[in-house]
């Protein structure tokens, strides 16, 4: 049956992590021990507008699914000059994220490589690409001092320069960081259960198959008997030969199972 328990549980965990919500999955607020001022309220409103413009409902759900499936997820914080509030959060694909952490502080990201694959047509429309490759890769490299973008190995000067913030603008959150520095996936613990369940279901299927298509035997069969002439399956037709006499009337019958558990066969007398 191919039951995919890993997929079901990872999606269920992602569905329940934020509970039920209407507008935004998370809300910012002023700490109870802090004074509420106009500047703090402006910061809260800005954070909410960033979530709204970044489609936080989809973004955070996909991020949580990455954490359960791969062990961790990453979000890139970047400027978005074409629409307010001019800051956007975007999900980084796990397959294209290569981080370098501070060995003394795993929460300190020293640099990061981000790779995005696109078609030739997408590269032409977005970057004016003039190459012939069907799949083009853009590599984005961040350090605390500089950032660069390369398309098919060529530097994109308009998207490279000095890092104005002094930090790598990537937030990475592992699901569980114990023995695996990148993060432990929920799937790793479910795969053995998944395999065991599929084997047991396969055993049930084999048992049904053997009972539905049992091995047949016969005694005193004619010399020219050929088992290939009597197949079992839909639209099969058995030629049982001709009756004695001249011009016997043709008969066509249907083979069906009796309702008893012995599964004996019966030939109803059906005539054309």
Describe this protein's structure.
By secondary structure, the chain is of the alpha+beta class. Helix content is 29%, strand content 23%. A hairpin with a 7-residue loop joins strand 1 and strand 2. Helix 1 crosses helix 3 (56-70) and helix 1 (5-16) crosses helix 5 (186-212). Residues 259-272 have low confidence and may be disordered.
Give a nutshell description of this structure.
By secondary structure, this protein is of the alpha+beta class.
Write the layout of secondary structure elements.
Layout: H1 5-16, H2 38-53, H3 56-70, E1 72-79, E2 87-92, E3 97-102, E4 105-119, H4 120-127, E5 135-143, E6 146-151, E7 154-155, E8 161-162, E9 170-174, H5 186-212, E10 256-257, E11 265-266
Antiparallel strand pairs: 1-2, 1-9, 3-4, 4-5, 5-6, 6-7, 6-8, 10-11
What tags apply to this protein structure?
three-stranded antiparallel sheet, 11 strands, elongated, disordered C terminus, alpha+beta, 5 helices, six-stranded antiparallel sheet, 272 residues
Shape: elongated
Q: Roughly what fraction of the amino acids lie in strands?
A: 15-25%
Rounded average pLDDT:
84
Which residues sit in consecutive blocks of at least 5 with pLDDT less than 50? Answer: 259-272
Instruction: Quote the distance from N terminus to C terminus.
Output: 41 Å
Q: What is the strand tally? A: 11
Which structural category fits the helices and strands?
alpha+beta
Order of helices and strands: HHHEEEEHEEEEEHEE
Largest sheet: 6 strands, antiparallel
Which value, in Å, is the CA radius of gyration? 33 Å
Please work out how many helical segments DSSP would assign.
5
Q: Kindly state the percentage of residues in helix.
A: 25-40%
